[in-house]
Design brief:
elongated, 4-stranded antiparallel beta sheet, alpha+beta, 3-stranded antiparallel beta sheet, single chain, 3 helices
Protein backbone atom coordinates (compact mmCIF):
# COMPACT_ATOMS: atom_id res chain seq x y z
CA UNK A 1 0.00 0.00 0.00
CA UNK A 2 1.42 3.31 -1.04
CA UNK A 3 0.68 6.57 0.69
CA UNK A 4 -0.33 9.52 -1.38
CA UNK A 5 0.51 13.03 -0.37
CA UNK A 6 -2.39 15.38 0.30
CA UNK A 7 -3.35 17.46 -2.66
CA UNK A 8 -1.99 21.04 -2.27
CA UNK A 9 -2.98 23.60 -4.82
CA UNK A 10 -1.19 26.83 -5.54
CA UNK A 11 -3.25 30.01 -5.48
CA UNK A 12 -4.57 30.85 -8.88
CA UNK A 13 -5.22 34.12 -10.59
CA UNK A 14 -8.93 33.56 -9.93
CA UNK A 15 -8.24 33.32 -6.14
CA UNK A 16 -6.30 36.59 -6.24
CA UNK A 17 -9.06 38.37 -8.15
CA UNK A 18 -11.66 37.05 -5.70
CA UNK A 19 -9.73 38.42 -2.66
CA UNK A 20 -8.93 41.72 -4.39
CA UNK A 21 -12.57 42.23 -5.42
CA UNK A 22 -13.75 41.48 -1.87
CA UNK A 23 -11.27 43.98 -0.38
CA UNK A 24 -12.27 46.67 -2.89
CA UNK A 25 -15.95 46.06 -2.09
CA UNK A 26 -15.27 46.35 1.67
CA UNK A 27 -13.37 49.65 1.25
CA UNK A 28 -16.05 50.99 -1.12
CA UNK A 29 -18.82 49.99 1.28
CA UNK A 30 -17.07 51.68 4.21
CA UNK A 31 -16.56 54.80 2.09
CA UNK A 32 -20.27 54.92 1.29
CA UNK A 33 -21.40 54.27 4.88
CA UNK A 34 -19.02 56.74 6.60
CA UNK A 35 -20.94 59.94 5.63
CA UNK A 36 -24.15 58.45 6.97
CA UNK A 37 -22.48 57.59 10.28
CA UNK A 38 -20.96 61.08 10.50
CA UNK A 39 -24.37 62.66 9.87
CA UNK A 40 -25.58 61.20 13.17
CA UNK A 41 -23.12 63.37 15.16
CA UNK A 42 -24.27 66.89 16.12
CA UNK A 43 -22.83 69.68 14.01
CA UNK A 44 -20.60 72.43 15.40
CA UNK A 45 -23.50 74.88 15.69
CA UNK A 46 -25.46 72.45 17.84
CA UNK A 47 -22.48 71.77 20.07
CA UNK A 48 -21.82 75.50 20.42
CA UNK A 49 -25.49 76.13 21.17
CA UNK A 50 -25.26 74.76 24.63
CA UNK A 51 -23.64 71.43 25.05
CA UNK A 52 -21.20 71.48 27.95
CA UNK A 53 -17.55 71.86 27.01
CA UNK A 54 -14.89 69.88 28.86
CA UNK A 55 -11.49 71.54 29.21
CA UNK A 56 -8.28 69.81 30.26
CA UNK A 57 -6.54 72.09 32.74
CA UNK A 58 -3.31 70.07 32.82
CA UNK A 59 -1.48 71.97 30.07
CA UNK A 60 -2.43 75.42 31.40
CA UNK A 61 0.64 76.86 33.12
CA UNK A 62 0.39 78.99 36.24
CA UNK A 63 -0.24 82.60 35.23
CA UNK A 64 -1.65 81.56 31.82
CA UNK A 65 -5.06 82.43 30.42
CA UNK A 66 -7.04 80.22 28.02
CA UNK A 67 -9.86 81.55 25.85
CA UNK A 68 -12.70 79.42 24.49
CA UNK A 69 -16.24 79.83 23.25
CA UNK A 70 -19.32 78.34 24.89
CA UNK A 71 -22.80 79.14 23.54
CA UNK A 72 -21.21 81.75 21.29
CA UNK A 73 -19.74 83.66 24.23
CA UNK A 74 -16.08 84.12 25.03
CA UNK A 75 -14.94 82.44 28.27
CA UNK A 76 -11.63 83.02 30.06
CA UNK A 77 -10.03 80.30 32.19
CA UNK A 78 -7.19 81.77 34.21
CA UNK A 79 -4.67 79.73 36.22
CA UNK A 80 -3.91 82.27 38.91
CA UNK A 81 -0.62 82.48 40.75
CA UNK A 82 -0.47 82.51 44.55
CA UNK A 83 0.34 86.25 44.36
CA UNK A 84 -2.76 86.92 42.24
CA UNK A 85 -4.93 84.92 44.65
CA UNK A 86 -3.54 86.78 47.68
CA UNK A 87 -4.04 90.17 45.99
CA UNK A 88 -7.65 89.25 45.16
CA UNK A 89 -8.37 88.00 48.68
CA UNK A 90 -6.81 91.05 50.40
CA UNK A 91 -9.15 93.57 48.74
CA UNK A 92 -11.49 95.56 50.98
CA UNK A 93 -14.84 94.39 49.59
CA UNK A 94 -16.59 97.60 50.73
CA UNK A 95 -14.37 99.56 48.30
CA UNK A 96 -15.67 97.66 45.26
CA UNK A 97 -18.31 98.98 42.86
CA UNK A 98 -19.88 95.50 42.64
CA UNK A 99 -18.94 94.00 46.04
CA UNK A 100 -18.08 90.32 45.81
CA UNK A 101 -15.47 88.33 47.73
CA UNK A 102 -12.90 86.41 45.75
CA UNK A 103 -14.13 83.19 47.42
CA UNK A 104 -17.57 83.78 45.86
CA UNK A 105 -16.03 83.90 42.37
CA UNK A 106 -14.09 80.62 42.48
CA UNK A 107 -14.96 77.06 43.45
CA UNK A 108 -14.22 75.94 46.99
CA UNK A 109 -10.78 74.37 47.22
CA UNK A 110 -9.76 75.56 43.73
CA UNK A 111 -8.87 79.26 44.13
CA UNK A 112 -6.18 78.99 41.45
CA UNK A 113 -8.82 78.56 38.71
CA UNK A 114 -10.91 81.57 37.73
CA UNK A 115 -13.57 81.04 35.06
CA UNK A 116 -15.36 84.17 33.76
CA UNK A 117 -17.08 85.41 30.63
CA UNK A 118 -14.57 87.32 28.51
CA UNK A 119 -16.47 90.46 27.57
CA UNK A 120 -16.34 93.81 29.33
CA UNK A 121 -19.59 94.53 31.13
CA UNK A 122 -19.65 98.09 29.78
CA UNK A 123 -20.13 97.57 26.03
CA UNK A 124 -19.00 94.00 25.42
CA UNK A 125 -15.44 94.63 24.26
CA UNK A 126 -12.80 91.97 24.90
CA UNK A 127 -10.45 93.15 27.66
CA UNK A 128 -6.72 92.46 27.55
CA UNK A 129 -5.42 90.03 30.17
CA UNK A 130 -2.60 90.75 32.64
CA UNK A 131 -3.07 94.47 32.02
CA UNK A 132 -4.13 97.49 34.01
CA UNK A 133 -3.37 98.70 37.48
CA UNK A 134 -4.45 95.42 39.13
CA UNK A 135 -2.85 93.10 36.52
CA UNK A 136 -6.22 91.47 35.83
CA UNK A 137 -7.89 92.79 32.69
CA UNK A 138 -7.98 96.18 30.99
CA UNK A 139 -10.49 97.18 28.33
CA UNK A 140 -8.65 99.49 25.93
CA UNK A 141 -11.86 100.71 24.29
CA UNK A 142 -13.26 102.66 27.23
CA UNK A 143 -10.81 102.10 30.08
CA UNK A 144 -12.55 99.59 32.34
CA UNK A 145 -10.17 97.89 34.76
CA UNK A 146 -10.73 94.47 36.37
CA UNK A 147 -8.61 92.77 39.04
CA UNK A 148 -7.33 89.17 39.09
CA UNK A 149 -10.73 88.04 40.32
CA UNK A 150 -12.56 89.69 37.42
CA UNK A 151 -14.06 92.38 39.67
CA UNK A 152 -14.50 95.87 38.23
CA UNK A 153 -12.05 98.29 39.83
CA UNK A 154 -12.29 101.32 37.55
CA UNK A 155 -13.70 102.75 34.35
CA UNK A 156 -17.27 102.69 33.10
CA UNK A 157 -18.01 98.96 33.56
CA UNK A 158 -20.94 98.68 35.98
CA UNK A 159 -20.48 95.11 37.23
CA UNK A 160 -17.87 92.37 37.58
CA UNK A 161 -17.08 89.94 34.77
CA UNK A 162 -19.91 87.36 35.00
CA UNK A 163 -19.23 83.74 35.90
CA UNK A 164 -20.60 81.03 33.58
CA UNK A 165 -21.99 77.81 35.02
CA UNK A 166 -19.13 75.37 35.47
CA UNK A 167 -17.99 72.45 37.59
CA UNK A 168 -14.89 70.37 38.07
CA UNK A 169 -15.08 66.84 36.68
CA UNK A 170 -11.70 66.10 38.30
CA UNK A 171 -8.66 68.00 39.55
CA UNK A 172 -7.55 68.56 35.95
CA UNK A 173 -10.86 68.83 34.08
CA UNK A 174 -13.47 71.57 34.16
CA UNK A 175 -16.85 71.38 32.44
CA UNK A 176 -18.19 74.72 31.21
CA UNK A 177 -21.99 74.75 31.01
CA UNK A 178 -22.67 72.30 33.83
CA UNK A 179 -23.42 73.30 37.40
CA UNK A 180 -22.12 71.25 40.27
CA UNK A 181 -24.56 68.66 41.55
CA UNK A 182 -24.90 68.21 45.27
Amino acid sequence: MTETAPHVTEPTRRDFLFVATGAAAAVGGATLVWPFVQSLAPDAATVAAGAPVEVDLGPIAEGQLVKLFWRGKLVFIRHRTSEEIKAAEDVNIASLRDPQADSERVKNGKPQWLVVYGNCTHLGCVPLSNQGEYKGWFCPCHGSVFDTSGRVRGGPAPINLPIPPYSFASDTKVVIGQRETA
